[in-house]
Amino acid sequence: MKRISLASKSLALAILLAGCADTSRLTDRGGYRVDTSVSSLNQNARVRYLVMHYTAVNDRRSLELLTRGAGSAHYLAPSVPRVVNGKPVVLRLVPEEKRAWHAGISEWNGRSNLNDTSVGIEIVNPGFTVEAGGRRWHPFSPNQIELVALLAEDIIRRHQISPDNVVAHSDIAPLRKSDPGPLFPWEQLAGRGIGAWPDRPVVDKYLAGRAPDAPVPVLNLQRALAKYGYSLPQHGGVDDETTRVVSAFQMHFRPGDISGRADAETEAIAMALLEKYRT
Known about the structure:
The protein is built from nine helices and 13 strands. By secondary structure, the protein is α/β, with parallel strands linked by helices. The chain folds into three domains: 2-35; 49-190, Peptidoglycan recognition protein-like (Lysozyme-like, 3-Layer(aba) Sandwich); 200-277, Orthogonal Bundle (Muramoyl-pentapeptide Carboxypeptidase, domain 1), CATH 1.10.101.10. The strands form five sheets. A five-stranded mixed sheet has the order 7-4-10-3-13. Strand 11 and strand 12 form a beta hairpin. Helix 6 packs across helix 9 (264-277). The chain starts with a helix and ends with a helix. This is N-acetylmuramoyl-L-alanine amidase.
């Protein structure tokens, strides 16, 4: 063992000395230089999550709030993206290596304070308006979604973000937020490798012939959602917190019905996601 240790030390010293001799890897920082020829194996990327938002205000106000207000985001997709030489333009407000203030109090799959480990994309969209029949959600434009898709593909590739870590603001803060809402095209984006999506045959397997709206034990659904990544109670009761979290899950994966009820289709979707991403 002692010989191996000495050999390892000798090799490490040789590498360091070789690096010192390679002046091409010296970075000048004014009063000193940094040798970048040797890199530790004990490191990983800061960015692990990609979070989607809508701004809930118009372009001018969005830019004002995200650059001079209390919040920020790494990118802003305008309501009508301008095109330069055939390519749509997104606004970069915060460099990705820096921390933007977009997630707030947040939690996903056991990790909290996602500002520290995420990139945030804000999309100019009014969100919803309250009308006589309830909330009316406003759609995103095809040009916006194409720009967001191109941006997300690039971010995911560079940071090696897994599909289940591409999330909605409402996924990581379901008691406070509803963005990007039920009209955000998660299924369409998943077809391009952006975000998670359940396989329909697997959903049908777990549905097992039950009516989609058939009630299910709340505790079963609470446990499934917690295992997938959501933060919610595990007591088997129907309370406001559980209803909001279930509704957030439905906005992402079953936008046709976001009532927050614990039903068979919601449970089947959760189980299909667990089979695909948590086994």
